[in-house]
Amino acid sequence: MGAASLAIISVLTHMAFKKEEENYLKEIIELRESLERLRRRDGEFNELGRLLVYRVAYAMGMSYDEAKKALMDITGLSIDELERRVNEIEKKIKKLEKKIKLFRQEVPAGIVTADVGEFAKGRIYPNIKVENGELRVRVEDGYHSIVRAGKFNELVNEVRDRLLKQGFVVIVGPKGIGKSTLAAAVIWKLFMNGDIGLVARVEVLDSKNYPKFVTFVENFGKEFGKYFGRLLILYDPVSTEAYERVDIDVKAFIQTNIKRTIKDLMNAIKSISSEASKPLTLIVIPSDVYNALSGEMRNALEVYRLDVSQGLINTEFLAELIREYTRTKSNPNGCALSDRELSELTGELAKFDSGHALIARLIGEELARNNCSAREIKELISKAKGKAEKFIILHINGLFKVHKNTNTANALVEIFALRRPFVDSVRPGVPILTPGIIELIGEKKGSSLLQSAEGGELRGWLVIRQHDLIEEAIKKLLICIVNRSKECEELGDELEPWRLGTVRRSLREVSEKVRDVSTAVEYFVGNYGKDFTDALRDFSNECWKRAALIIGYASAGRVSVPRHEDLP
Questions:
Q1: Is residue 474 located within the same domain as residue 409?
Q2: Full domain range(s) for residue 552
Q3: Would you state the pLDDT for residue 217?
Q4: Average pLDDT, the chain
Q5: How confident is the model at residue 455 (pLDDT cuts 50, 70, 90)?
Q6: Residue 169 has pLDDT above 90, yes or no
Q7: Considering 259, 283, 308, which residue would you say is the last residue of a domain?
Q8: Which residues are in coiled coils (predicted)?
């Protein structure tokens, strides 16, 4: 029997075994008999059988002929032989599961690991998952296809080829152009081609976890590589808070955190004597962060650097991004924009200082909201004058209609201030607040918009930790509401609705009391606690218990709650 046949039996056994059903062996034997019935008298598969072969070939990454031969081999096995093979594989699965438990115990703090299934569910990039074999990226209205127009696929292939040849790649480019999306596409391709079996995302390396990280990498190569496949180390720092400022403290932050982590990564990999055990390493950092590193560090990285600016700031790529984000649940085909309109929009978009992919997304969403009329979006682009930060604030003003409703602006500054302490502790796409909390604040502040049915999309927007550039724009907005520095005045008329007396007073009140996570919780409990618990009383007793459990887990800093069926 060929390796392909054994691989299929192994996968079938593993899937059945995971169901923990006593008669899974019987199911596999029945499958073998079903396969036999799909063969014609001449031994070939019938039409239904050929369809099955195609599906198996696609799922297993085989050619049609390989899958066909493998399935025919399985039909040729006797029941006794099939049973023997399944029992052998079952023993291997049990042994492998013990290895997996040991491996999970060895993963040091500050490292997140994922196999292909975990990666597909968003364990490495929470806003990116796989549906029907396709990478999808999440925004407020759901998941969108990752656009592969222009030079995107070329870049994916180039990064993969470089990784496999030299083992180390540093992706560099302006913020918000889609570097992390590119990295996710590369990782998925590596998984699909069998180049890697596991990815480990490094959050930070320091004196506490570095020794354990080195041991983990060494042990993986020696003990676990043969079970999981090759290891890929990913370093993609998510927060750009430090990157926007240039004072001495922040330069020290860059030097001591980013530089140290990269240096430690390089040292850890160099320390591995066996070439076969060395992991692949992928680093993703913005251009200004790369340029802020010391000359010595840049010299060490230069041979591995791949600047993706030209490939991702590409009008063909940006045009398809805009098209994709005009698609909604009510209009799945999106806006039928002419090539001329798209050319005008992308020509202006390419001139922005940063955030090109992000702004393309926001343009698409604005077009969808305005019945595909480009008039309003052209106005926004014109007012932004090539500044991504200014465009984002204009977008927020229009999204929440702050010019028309002071009460909404009052509610927003409170919500923004309460969100702020949580932003740096989670990645984009992760919830920070709940829609109910936002609705409650909107009600107390008299914002009809945040309570209305139309406000559901807006509440969803406020719930999620947004892209770094959006969170930085919100932070600057909060600072500039009460500050009239030259940097703030560059935002111009966009600040007017936020500088009304009541809005500024609301912000000052919350800013004086909310400084970190603890004070944010104290402020919310003090100002909204009674209303919150009164709202919960409207639910059934079971919902009350569940809410109390979730709140308790969250208060203790535990990020997952037991399934309902697992509770007494």
A1: yes
A2: 538-568
A3: 83
A4: 79
A5: confident
A6: yes
A7: 308
A8: 72-106
Residue 132 sits in the same domain as residue 252: yes
Distances (CA, A) of 333 to 18, 128, 234, 317, 548: 39, 21, 35, 18, 42
Co-location of 348 and 468 in the same domain: no
Termini Cα distance of the chain: 48
Q: What pLDDT is stored for residue 326 in this prediction?
A: 92
pLDDT of residue 16: 46
User: In what order do the strands lie in the sheet containing 111-114?
Assistant: 111-114, 198-202, 231-235, 280-286, 168-173, 305-307
Q: Are residues 233 and 356 in the same domain?
A: no
Note the residue count of the chain. Answer: 568
Among 462, 53, 57, CA closest to 45 = 53
DSSP 281: E
**For the whole model, what pTM was predicted?**
0.72
518 plus 565 within the same structural domain: no
How many structural domains are present in the chain? 5
- Residue closest to 417 by CA, chosen among 490, 507, 347, 332: 507
Segment among 107-111, 113-117, 233-237, 407-411 with least mean pLDDT: 107-111
CA distances from 94 to 14, 41, 87, 99, 124 (A): 10, 39, 11, 9, 26
Reported as a pLDDT band with limits 50, 70 and 90, residue 162 is very high
424 token code pair: 């740096």
The answer to whether residues 292 and 419 belong to one domain is no
Asked if residue 278 and residue 140 are part of one domain, the reply reads: yes
